[in-house]
Write a structure and sequence with these properties.
Strand 4 (about 320-325) and strand 5 (about 330) form a beta hairpin. The protein is globular. It has one domain (about 25-320). The strands form 2 sheets. It has a 4-stranded antiparallel beta sheet. It has a two-stranded parallel sheet with strand order 1-2. The chain is built from 17 helices and 6 strands. By secondary structure, the protein is mainly alpha-helical. The two termini are about 35 Å apart.
Length: about 350
């Protein structure tokens, strides 16, 4: 990995080819967020005020859940400062966008902006990276999980996408709340708890059945949509000693209309090079990356990436390999022998979990 470069190096090379306008904030993105808010409020009112057939409520849950997810994508962009630069407005709008996912804007900025982006795919420093065999072998729960048959693990992993963002967000709150000074901790606490108070209060107003269709099921849908992207962002890439976006990140491709609805969230390598640039400009950045470093850039259709995630384990061995501890099988990572169109494993000798019990 001697040819790795950090994201600042790539940014410096790419800036020579980009107009200055692309680095300006894009406040018009907020109109998309307003549209999603209107969809959510409208569907809430229909479900809450009318006694509809459960099938109709089920159909209404889908646009609510998709709107929750899209608001999360917009919140991500807002809190990177690409929509509005003024701090308090940025945090307020970010809190509103992340309200359905119940994520504190200041926790998000600490966890995502200041830690994940700085230490992407760096073992033990990136809060979003998956563990190494050495790390999980020290944890009883993970030792038990990785003794389960691979199919069971793969199915459970995909099913858990419906709750992973919410669960990880709660975990990050518990991890990072202590990093704020004592004067700021109450504000951060309120930011994290107030959305949950809102949604639990809605339960008592609507009753469980309507609340299930208005919030709980949409939350599961939103989690799955958001995590379908997040799980492909880095989980097929190697762990790296240098925060190199071309090595540690993957851009997935989706239909153009999906990119419009999801604020270009699919352009993830581009985002890690220019996190403070509005994602509306990422197609241009992608064009120049592919011109400058065509052999190092990773992209594939979303469906292909998800299929590869299903077929490969999520435990790292020696940074470049993904291993199944139960069978002693290793799969390469992107840039290190993994062909997502023809996934093959190799048998290797490693310290299996069972031997360490």
């Amino acid at each position: 990995m001697s040819d790795l470069h950090n994201f600042g190096w790539y940014a410096a090379q790419l800036k020579k080819h980009l107009p200055k306008e692309v680095f300006k904030p894009a406040p018009f993105r907020l109109f998309g967020g307003l549209a999603y808010l209107l969809v959510v409020v409208g569907c809430f009112l229909v479900i809450g005020l009318f006694d509809l057939h459960p099938l109709v409520n089920l159909l209404l849950s889908i646009p609510i859940g998709l709107s929750f997810a899209a608001l999360g994508f917009l919140g991500h962009e807002i809190l990177h400062g690409t929509v509005i630069r003024k701090g308090w407005i940025r945090n307020l709008l970010g809190a509103i966008a992340f309200w359905p996912l119940s994520t504190s804007p200041q926790i998000w900025r600490k966890w995502h902006n200041a830690t994940h982006h700085v230490h992407t795919q760096q073992d033990e420093h990136d809060p979003d990276s998956w563990p190494t065999l050495e790390r999980i072998s020290k944890t009883k729960l993970f030792r038990w999980i990785y003794k389960l048959p691979f199919f069971v693990r793969a199915f459970t992993s995909f099913a858990s996408l419906t709750v992973q963002f919410t669960a990880h967000s709660i975990k990050m709150f518990l991890v990072y709340i202590k990093s704020f000074n004592l004067k700021k901790q109450p504000t951060v606490f309120v930011q994290a708890v107030l959305p949950w108070i809102t949604w639990i209060s809605l339960l008592f107003v609507m009753g469980f059945e309507k609340w299930f269709f208005a919030f709980l099921l949409p939350l599961l849908i939103a989690n799955f949509v958001v995590m379908a992207y997040i799980s492909t962002n880095h989980r097929l890439n190697p762990l790296v000693p240098v925060n190199d976006p071309l090595a540690n990140s993957l851009t997935v491709t989706v239909p153009k209309w999906v990119d419009v609805l999801h604020f270009n969230f699919s352009y993830h390598t581009e985002h890690h090079i220019f996190p403070s640039m509005s994602s509306k400009h990422y197609p241009l950045v992608k064009k120049h990356i592919k011109n400058l470093w065509p052999d190092r850039y990773h992209e594939m259709p979303m469906g292909q990436a998800l299929k590869a995630l299903w077929k490969t384990p999520r435990v790292y061995f020696e940074h470049n390999d993904l291993v199944d501890p139960l069978k002693g099988k290793a799969f390469g990572s992107l840039g290190n022998g993994l062909d997502t169109r023809d996934i093959k494993s190799k048998k290797i000798k490693l310290p299996t979990i069972s031997k360490q019990d």
